[in-house]
Write a structure and sequence with these properties.
By secondary structure, this protein is α/β, with parallel strands linked by helices. The protein contains 10 helices and 14 strands.
Length: 322
């Protein structure tokens, strides 16, 4: 189950059991913070918890604070946490040097309608807009351009917006053993996974239970029509041979992706790229392609290859984070 979905279901279940439940939400983060923007958790009056805002002594202290909040009935509180023991004010008890702005919100019964809508969106794997403010929790079906947005003027005048659902799309071209291992690994992260192959009844495709979509193509040239470009779209090509890799790559050459990688030996890729240059393919298009795919860790098994590719994609995804 999607981690976000688990937390929202926990909140809904606590309300249904008439248990006060407080949500802790990272509204903003910078530097080496253990919990990034969008991390959240919930704690109910029985001490049951779901989710995390980064762990460590900071999370422990805030959870203990929340337990007293049930008695004090303080509905909304914003806490700035500075991870530096020299900071004095707002010291989190940690020394990793980053900062977080964390919302403590005692969820109201009136929020249940919005929470049920959130659960419905996530169960259907749809995107939407989550809005948090001093007024409470709101959600609608619109899809914001930004993953996160936080504006604050004072503790009583602020708004947080987040793109609900999966924020990234991963298209894996090829459904073999490496694809299966890669899909299993990436399913633990915030990626909506699609796998494409042209082989019917392929055992590894049938065994893939972590991809959200699986598609059987007649020909890899169809990818030009079925895969959309996008800043949050990552594509990894790992078909069963040189010709099918070539078909897939040619179909996707002229599309803008956040990441486009090709699995294969250096000699195979060198041969392919020599041919493209003879055909006067734009050099900038070739330079955008990650080849050979993955970081160099001398991968041997499908699982090791999956880790090397996942590390490269995560590096690309997070490279602009402060």
């Amino acid at each position: 189950m999607n981690k976000q979905l688990q937390i929202w279901k926990f909140i809904a279940n606590s309300l249904q059991r008439q248990l006060p439940v407080t949500m802790l939400y990272v509204l903003a983060s910078s530097g080496s913070s253990p919990g990034r923007q969008g991390f959240f958790m919930a704690v109910n009056a029985n001490g049951e918890m779901e989710g995390s805002i980064g762990g460590g002594i900071m999370e422990h202290r805030l959870v203990e604070m929340v337990k007293t909040q049930f008695i004090q009935d303080q509905n909304v509180s914003i806490r700035k946490q500075v991870h530096n023991k020299m900071s004095g004010k707002n010291n989190s008890g940690m020394i990793c040097s980053g900062e977080q702005t964390i919302l403590l919100y005692l969820v109201k019964l009136e929020d249940m309608f919005a929470i049920q809508r959130i659960i419905s969106l996530l169960e259907k794997k749809h995107n939407g807009s989550l809005m948090l403010s001093p007024a409470g929790i709101e959600v609608d079906d619109s899809v914001p351009d930004q993953d996160f947005e936080f504006k604050i003027h004072s503790e009583n005048d602020w708004i947080y917006k987040e793109k609900m659902g999966y924020k990234n799309i991963l298209s894996i071209i090829g459904g073999g053993h490496c694809s299966l291992a890669f899909s299993n690994l990436m399913s633990q992260m915030d990626f909506y996974i699609k796998v494409y192959d042209k082989r019917k009844d392929l055992k590894t495709m049938l065994e893939n239970h972590t991809a959200h979509e699986k598609h059987i193509l007649t020909d890899y040239t169809e990818l030009a029509h079925v895969i959309s470009p996008g800043y949050n779209h990552y594509v990894a090509i790992m078909t069963f041979g040189y010709r099918t890799d070539d078909e897939a790559l040619r179909a996707l050459f002229n599309k803008e992706f956040r990441y486009l990688g090709l699995l294969g030996s250096q000699s195979k890729i060198k041969k392919m790229f020599e041919q493209y240059r003879k055909e006067n393919v734009n050099e900038q298009l070739l330079q955008r392609i990650y080849t050979p795919i993955g970081i160099p860790i001398k991968s041997q098994t499908p699982e090791e290859i999956a880790i090397s590719i996942a590390a490269q994609i995560i590096c690309e995804k997070n490279k602009f984070l402060s």
